[in-house]
Specification:
- The chain has 2 domains: 65 residues, Orthogonal Bundle (Arc Repressor Mutant, subunit A); 189 residues, Chorismate lyase (3-Layer(aba) Sandwich).
- The longest helix has 15 residues.
- Strands 4-5-6-9-8-7-11 form a 7-stranded antiparallel sheet.
- Helix 1 packs across helix 3.
- Helix content is 25%, strand content 32%.
Length: 272
């Protein structure tokens, strides 16, 4: 049964995706049932099903071959990472054997936007270096990264032609300034027209969003970054310790749980 809190096409797309992931829909050859069978099975019209399949095809989950049928698409590399350490996605992907490379890249000096200046603890309209780029797995874009760095921390001439996509790795290799930690906020955001175009998604598709302030050992914020991750290519997890309340300080029954915010402070060894 489809779920009524989504549009019909998205409901149908989710039903098909779940059927593929569970192995209930595709045969050993990866072939899905016909459109007529799928539309009856899910309970939607053929037109709605075609729109759902179009969404899944654009996301790379299926491949439609004219005159032959619809097949499960080739699996894309999945980057799995914990958030206990700070590590660039390039370094992380290399450590687990997933090939990632930089695609379209733009590096330019400009005035900081109000939110950027506030995050960098700078005066409004201060000059910053904005580095934005698409990260690719094969021919598919999987992430869009933006770093905003004060120009007295990073000069655009330093990056040169050898820049591989990671501002964090560049600063770590340079060793100046010494880095201490990052304060990261996790959230979700619907892809707007620009982001959908960059990541080959549909407008409104969900994106995982990280917003981070990178601190030097002096306490100065030396980089404000925003990272958007395409669904299906990344899986993040956090290891959390249980808070054992001491009987000496507990004045009542132990709570069943604790409210936890989405702000994550992670050490500088690694960043995703």
């Amino acid at each position: 049964m489809v779920r009524r809190n989504l549009t019909l096409a998205r409901q149908a797309a989710q039903e098909v995706a779940e059927g593929i992931q569970s192995g209930a829909l595709a045969g050993d050859d990866g072939l899905l049932p016909s459109e007529a069978t799928l539309s009856q099975r899910i309970g939607v019209s053929r037109a709605t099903l075609r729109e759902a399949l179009s969404q899944l095809e654009q996301g790379g989950l299926i491949v439609r071959r004219h005159g032959i049928g619809t097949f499960v698409g080739p699996r894309h590399p999945l980057v799995v990472a914990g958030l206990e350490e700070l590590q660039s996605i390039e370094t992380l992907a290399q450590s687990i054997g997933v090939e990632i490379h930089m695609g379209e890249c733009e590096i330019r000096e400009r005035a900081a936007a109000p939110g950027e200046a506030e995050s960098l603890q700078m005066s409004p309209a201060s000059t910053v270096l904005a580095v934005q780029r698409v990260m690719m797995s094969g021919e598919r874009p999987i992430a869009f990264l933006i770093d905003v760095v004060p120009t007295d921390v990073l000069d655009p001439k330093e990056l040169g032609d050898s820049f591989d996509g990671s501002v964090l790795d560049f600063l770590l290799r340079r060793g100046d300034p010494p880095l201490k930690h990052s304060h990261t906020e996790l959230g979700a955001e619907a892809a707007d027209t620009d982001m959908a175009h960059r990541l080959h998604l549909r407008v409104g598709d969900p994106l995982l969003k990280f917003s981070a302030q990178l601190y030097a050992a002096t306490g100065r914020v030396v980089d404000y970054s925003v990272s958007y991750f395409s669904p299906g290519h990344f899986r993040f997890h956090i290891i959390r310790r249980v808070n054992q309340l001491s009987p000496q300080v507990s004045e009542g029954p132990a709570p069943h749980g604790r409210a936890v915010g989405l702000a994550v402070a992670v050490p500088v060894d690694a960043r995703v």
